[in-house]
Amino acid sequence: MLGSVILRTVHGCQLAIATVSQCNRCCTGTKQLAKLLSSAATGGWCQPAMRFSQQLPGFEPRRLLLLTKITRLEYERSLNPHLSEEKLKDHLKRKGSDYDNLLLHHNIHHGTLNSLVAHLQQRGIDCQVVSRNMYTLAAIDWADAVVSAGGDGTFLLAASRIKSATKPLIGVNTDPGKSEGYLCMPTSKTAPDAIDALLAGRFRWLWRQRIRVSMSTGLPSSSQSSADSPADGASRLQSLHLKYPEYRFSEHYKELEEAWLRRQPMLQCQEHELSPLPVLALNEVFIGESLSARVSYYEMGLGREGRMRKQKSSGVTVCTGTGSTSWYFHINHLSESQVEEILHYANQLADSPDGSGSRSRRYTPAEIASIARNYNSALTFDPELIRMAWAVRDPVVNSVFAADQCRGVTDLIRVRSRMWDARLVIDGDYAFSFNDGCVALLEMRPEDAICCPY
């Protein structure tokens, strides 16, 4: 046995959360487990601190909660309840939207959803279908597992509110022609076939790490006297809708959202106290000004003892291994033309100043493509790794502000706001006020991981 033991059980299989004893179903033996724990202690970047993505038998849920996306057509209907279907069709046509195409994908989604529900009921599984405004903690607690029926946006929404690492999340892409569904189960099978494969144990568990965010005003309670004070926004730890929201329809349907967030337990912040936000980030956390044209001003420190450095930029993105294939990847991605330009200047440096010799070389298009591909693939990392990758967008560089490092990996990040209309945004969906004096602590904890089949 290795040290103290903290075990949880998922469908008959014991899983370690902190330190673990040998478990034949999840690990191949004590030596391998000791190696994993050593990696966790030393902060190794090359492999996950804990991995339990082994094949597990006996997934036999009795109750499933299905979170369904809001289709674009449903969203348009909700915005225009006074219009008949024919008038809605004309209204969409004037906006340049294709009603028939929206109806087609609406029917595809609900056809997949209905067939999935019918199949689960035939298997004797109790199902409950909810949309995002009915996706509550009570509903999640009722279920043995959660199924997201939609695309990646629906999957991220489902993940944000699941608190337990022992509550599986299963992603079903209901319309592969409309959404890639990167986080969902492979689309080579129909939804009922995929469920049958799960129930037969033909899958592996993947423990996707998530980011926990805790916030504090950093101000004494006595200083928070006026609702009109610029610092007042920093003291409000509730979801604030973006002034100009990005209406991606199913992913950003906000009905009753603010009321739900205000009901979640959150401590009253005193000076230097931190309160965890009621949602966890599976993809990324963004910190910056609400108006993207404004410069974001903040202090940031990396690691447990990291010194706070003042920075100005277009904001900071912090991601998990899951999110490293998304926004973070595109921020840092290099095109082949950029690689070619860098190699051009490298060749100039390699040439002898007196012209007596040259160490430069010409790279073929295939070599340039290979360099770009290798660089970009190195940006992504294992979703089970207890590490966060961060990137500063468009850093300001002058005699006052330095940007010697614009991205990296860490296990903890502190950010203090020096902004007046800023937001801390989780997975592009939940926006929290983050104004002058407010402090955010971003970290990963093994117990915050979410288990998903793959």
UniProtKB/TrEMBL annotation:
SUPFAM superfamilies: NAD kinase/diacylglycerol kinase-like. The keyword NADP applies. Keywords: Kinase, NAD, NADP, Transferase. GO terms for molecular function: NAD+ kinase activity. One of its GO terms (cellular component) is mitochondrion. It holds the Pfam family NAD_kinase. The keyword tRNA-binding does not apply. GO terms for biological process: NAD+ metabolic process; NADP+ biosynthetic process. Its EC number is 2.7.1.23. PANTHER family: NAD KINASE 2, MITOCHONDRIAL, PTHR13158. Belongs to the NAD kinase family. This is NAD(+) kinase. It comes from Macrostomum lignano. The lineage of its organism: Eukaryota, Metazoa, Spiralia, Lophotrochozoa, Platyhelminthes.
